[in-house]
Structures are given as C-alpha cells and as structure tokens.
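Example record

One chain of 402 residues, shown exactly as stored in the release files.
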Amino acid sequence: MQTNIVEQLQRTAEGAEADRILRNCVHCGFCNATCPTYQLLGDELDGPRGRIYQIKDMLEGGEVSRRTQLHLDRCLTCRNCETTCPSGVEYGKLVDIGREMVEQRVRRPLGERLYRGLLRRVLPEPGRFGPLLRLGQAVRPLLPGALKAQVPPRQDPGEWPAARHDRRMLVLQGCVQPAMAPRINAAAARVLDRLGISLVAAEGAGCCGAIDQHLGAPENARERMRANIDAWWPHIEAGAEAVVLTASGCGALVREYAHHLAGDPDYAEKAERIAALARDLTEVVAAEDVAAVAPAAPPRVAVQTPCTLQHAQGLPGAITGLLERAGFELAPVAEAHLCCGSAGTYSILQPQLAERLRERKLGNLQADGPEVIATANIGCLHHLAAASAVPVRHWVELFDRR
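Predicted structure tokens for this chain:
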C-alpha cells in the first residue's frame, strides 16, 4: 500500500511504525472473512481493511470524526485478521496507534469520558475492584437474574503451596482475577507444585497494562509495565525461570513489553528479558510430565481458545493439545477461531455486539453436549459463564485435585 503520511507524523516513532505497517498491506480483504464485527455488521468500515484505510487517511491529514472513533471502538482487537493476513500486517499495533491519535483529536462526550475513566480507575486496581465486587457478592441473592449473572459467587481459593522447590517461577496475579476467580492462580500453584515447580507472586506486581492500552492511554499502560518489571526483577536476578501468565490476555501484552518500552532507556533491556521469559501456563505444563497431573476421570470438554492465546500469542492448539495428552475427551467446536465477545472491556463498552458474539460462541461450544467448557482467560470465562448452561472453568482447574 502506498502512503503519504504527513511529514510531522513521519518524524515520530508512532508515525514511522504506522507507515511501515501500512506499506505491508496489499488490501486483499482476506482479513474481512474472519473479522467478527464485519461478519455481524457487513460494513467495510467495521472490518480490518476498512479500519486500516481510516487510520491511513488520518495519518495522511484527512478528517477525523466521531464516525472514525466509532469504527475503531467497535474493533475487538481479537487479531484474527493477523492470523489470516498473507502479508503479515501487524494490525494490533496499528489499531493501538490509530486509537491513541483519535483520542487526541476527537473529544468524546462527557458521559463516555467519565465511563471510560471509571473503568481505567477501577478495573486495574485490586484495592478498588475487590471491595466493590465483594459488595456485589454480598447482595447477589437479591439481584435480578440478568444482573446476578454478572456477579460471580465468592470462591474459596484453597491453599497456596509454600515455595519449597529449587525451580521457581513468577506468576502475574492480575487485576480482576484475584477477586473474581482466586481459585485459578491457586490451582496453578498446586498443579505446578506437583510438578516440582514453586509458583511465586511478586509483591508490587499488578495489572499488566492491557486495560489502559486498549482504552487509548498508552503512557498509563507503560507505567504499569514498569511497575511490574520493578516487582519481578529481583526474583529474576535470583533465578526465577519464567513469568507465568494464567490469563492469556495478560500474556499477550507481557510478551510485547519490549515493543512498548523500546524507547525507554531505563527499561528497554529489562522489558526484552521479561518478554523472553513470559510463558502461558499451557506452555509450562506441556513441557513437564502431564501424566503426573492428569485427573483420574476427566470430563468431556469443549475448549474455547481465547483470541489472545490463538491469535496474539500464536498458540491455537495449546489447550486442546494439553487436554488430549491428559486423556480428556474433547467435544468438537465449530468456528473455534472466532471471538467470544469479551475482549477486555469490550463486553462493557459494546454490550450489544458482545452479546451477539457470545450467543454464537456458546451455540458452537454447547452443540455437542460437553460436561464443561474450558478456557484460559478470565475475561472470556466470566463473559461466557454469565450466559452458559454448561459450567465454564479455567482449564487448570480441571487438573487441580483439591
């Protein structure tokens, strides 16, 4: 694709990167064939190719409006288009640049600004989100059905094994996961303990930065990245083997810390090291003796592989391969490549589209009568569980003998 980006933007790192990405696009349209929003809406501007043209036009000095903002907001950032693209267009990086520029040039209505600001100040902060969730859980029996489904019941996480092994790995606790589903990380710690690995949560590590990044606040996201690196670094210097991510959404961003902090002289090298050490939990368990942690009577499972695992991290068969090795019977799932509609804050900000995508996904997941649906991301788990007739669990919970 030929570009003519305005000279002022060409001198910026973002402008130069956008120019490089755009030049790889041959506008073939293959991306639209697997784009969830294009399939739902049938609008070229709500597909990757149309969004690329809108971003290109903006970079070349064209008009930017609320309409531009709307079409970029509707993007799930599922990155299915990247998996489909024959030219290797890094759409995820491009849409982040486009969203940031639109935020700078188009002022949102007051209500939107307040709502998005509230999400950024509550969801990534366990000290705020946790108490609010516990309040909701306390009155959960009194809530109407639709609202009650959005508030998960309280969980007993069980015991977290003491760090007793020579092999140690770090785990990112995350922001909403410790409050919504504390059993996930505790189950991961117990499973890895049986494999001779101690899982350690570093004090001071928090949100990976994804919420800020996808809401057009990249500098706030970088601050969270730096805080995590500071928390992890002493453990890495002491020999921690990996940074384990039990939420694939977090894993997708942590693997890209080097990209986001490339221009930071104080953190660039450390970010490269962190990105190299990042491992999804599926990768860690798959590298060990899976038979040693396989359940005695595994249920029949339908697997929902999150977009952040299959498209962003390039691990489409990670969960299914692991479950098959452990003796699980897997129910067939049609359209496994499509997004469930969770996509971080997307299900909150675009509820109508998210619900349509969830209905389609659940129809495919439940079609062959599974006993449980397994996933690898807290957002997907919560979004699906709120409307599923079948229990939805993180896959590691199926290995936990607690």
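Notes: The CA atoms of residues 33 and 310 lie 17 Å apart.
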